[in-house]
Amino acid sequence: MAVARGVYLNHIARESADIKRLAKFYQEVLGFEEIESPKYEDFEVIWLRISPYFSLHLIERNPHNMLPEGPWSATAAVTDPKNLPRGHHICFSVSNFDSFVQILRDKGIETFEKTQPDGKTKQVFFFDPDGNGLEVASCQTPAQ
Questions:
Q1: Per its UniProt record, what SUPFAM superfamilies does this chain match (predicted)?
Q2: In what order do the strands lie in the sheet with 133-137?
Q3: How much is the pLDDT for 76?
Q4: What is the span of the domain harbouring residue 31?
Q5: Which residues of the chain have pLDDT under 70?
Q6: DSSP state of 137
Q7: Cα(67)–Cα(47) distance, rounded to whole angstroms?
């Protein structure tokens, strides 16, 4: 049986009715850098670099798509970060956890914090402007 070789996670895509607003949030809160992205005829995209080999692709929402736009537009919206469904988030790690959480507070972003039972890993949960769940953990950056 053949298996893929050299596999790594390349990007995460998020669809939004306002990709400029969403890009600004990720740039201002997490410091992601806008990178060159392709030009499409039917829709706009903004790509943000997360690391040398990983990016976030923000894609203009198809106005004809009948699916809910995001968690906040669902019939039972999840607006409190402590109720974020555990399987519906993206997690990033930062080395300056405490000051990062203060940045979120200073920006008025509602958060929910907890510490893992080992007492070492702190976590903060919050939402982006489209209601997508985010977690930021205090884990150290992996060795390169």
A1: Glyoxalase/Bleomycin resistance protein/Dihydroxybiphenyl dioxygenase (SSF54593)
A2: 90-93, 133-137, 122-127, 112-115
A3: 47
A4: 8-61
A5: 4, 65-79, 85-87, 140-144
A6: E
A7: 23
Give CA–CA dist 114/81, Å, rounded.
Answer: 11
φ, ψ at 76 (rounded to 5°):
-120, 80
What is the per-residue pLDDT for 71?
Answer: 53
- Do 118 and 76 share a structural domain? yes
Say whether both 94 and 49 belong to one domain: no
CB neighbour list of residue 45: distance below 8 Å, 6 or more residues apart: 19, 37, 38, 57, 58, 59, 60
In terms of domains, do 90 and 144 share one?
yes
Report CA 46 to chain centroid distance, whole Å: 14
Distance of CA 57 to the CA centre of its chain: 10
Side-chain half-sphere exposure of 18, counting CA atoms within 13 A? 9
